[in-house]
Amino acid sequence: MMKVTQIELRGFSRTIAELEWLLLILTLLYFVAPSAIVTDQWGIILAMVTFASFILSFRYSRLFTEETRWKLAIETWAMIIFISWVAFNTGGIDSPLLILFLIVIMVSALTLGKIITLLEFILITVVYIYFAQSTYTGDSFSLINFSDVMILFTPIILVGYVTTLLAADIHHANEELALLSDTDELTGVKNRRAFNKEFSIEAKRAVRYERPFSIMMLDSDNLKKINDQYGHPVGDSLIISLSQVIKSSLRETDILARYGGDEFVVMLPETIHSKAFEIAERIRQSVENTSFSADGNRVSSTLSIGVACYPEDSNISEEVLIKADKALYQSKLKGKNCVS
Predict the structure, then answer these.
(1) Which residues of the chain form CATH 3.30.70.270?
(2) Which SS3 state, helix, strand or coil, does residue 259 take?
(3) In this structure, is the dihedral angle defined by the CA atoms of residues 163, 17, 76 and 151, taken in order, positive or negative?
(4) Is-catalytic flag, 262?
(5) 161 CB contacts (<8 Å, ≥6 apart)?
(6) Which CATH architecture has domain 192-333?
(7) Which of 71, 105, 151, 236 is the most buried if burial means most Cβ atoms within 10 Å?
(8) What is the pLDDT of residues 156-189, one digit of tens each?
(9) pLDDT digits (tens, 9 = 90+) for 267-291
């Protein structure tokens, strides 16, 4: 998920960079237009130079090697300030450049979520009201004038609302896709790719804080026999049953994954060797005492389990997986249905 998020943020970042330059270009085109209304030419020039300097320093100075949402938020706030200033100097509430706020609202809704978008929407609303008061001073700022301002503001409201809904749907779809990509289709537990990701994170944490962790490799002893005797659908049912029995014996913090075929792997954070062996033995006994019905026959299986612990069995976290796999092989050599 972390990798997917970074890819997404990098894409958003590139888009925002292009939009920032687009804002500058549109402002420049308006500025040089013969019919443009500009009350402070040097103010507009200073704003364009300042905004261009901000883009260059903030985006291309390599001060930020990793894309984050707060970085994108700062850029959108800078866009609001720039648009507000140039609009103030090009007619206020009557400035055609006010429409550029639509770009900010769309970007914010798609990338920064509802809260940030709402805050930026409130700020833009304040800017509109300020411009309106500056134009319709005193008693002239009537309900009719306010209605006219709100009509001008309606596109901002609609775009913000619709884009926020679309962004929420896209975010939900991305979460579902990420979950599916990390989940074993048959058992519903994590797949090997997802386990390797989480193992890497937990192992680094254990090394940094000098905390133990254990690995269990678990393998069914008779899946091939069951597939040959009853068919693969029954074999699939056996794998599902094994995953459920294993999961029921674990804590919420433990990481269970189907490693391939009928082989499972479990990472036990904050667990020393003796405790991991105790858990493995409990799982082995539970599987041995569990069966299910298939075509009127009771089908059961046993597990061979290998256990290894960091740092007791290896002070290199990546080697613990290898040690556990070798221990599993020892269980097979001993006659299966045991823990090594």
Answers:
(1) 192-333
(2) strand
(3) negative
(4) yes
(5) none
(6) 2-Layer Sandwich (3.30)
(7) 105
(8) 777 777 777 777 776 666 666 666 667 888 888 8
(9) 999 999 899 999 999 999 998 888 7
